[in-house]
Amino acid sequence: EYLDERFPHPSLMPNDPGARAQMRLMLHRLETDWFSMWPQLSGRDKSPATKAKKTLREDLTVLAPLFEQYDFLMSDEFSLIDCYVAPLLWRLPHLGIKLPDSAKAVERYAEKIFNRDTFQASLSTAERGMR
Question: How far apart are CA 94 and CA 42, in angstroms?
Fold first, then answer.
């Protein structure tokens, strides 16, 4: 949110207060539901990792229709939520998470984000090796 306030053009948050609140709610959900699992997802202990991977796979599958509604996630414009979810989606193969066919919308969305020059420029050497 700091970047959006510091560099307002192009905006990464919707101008409409209701849409901005929805985006903040989704960002909070991503943080508490998905990113909080990172220690389990990337850990060496197989049991918590397996459960976390299953949870993430199922959540993405259930939310797949949300990835088709707009050009980007929850918006027709590239936004902060796209910046937030893209690194996680980039790491799915590295984590050994394969999405089912019913989540093809997530994969199409991810490829669109990954093909952006700005996304490619943001990757470190280690991150490039994850795919």
Answer: 10
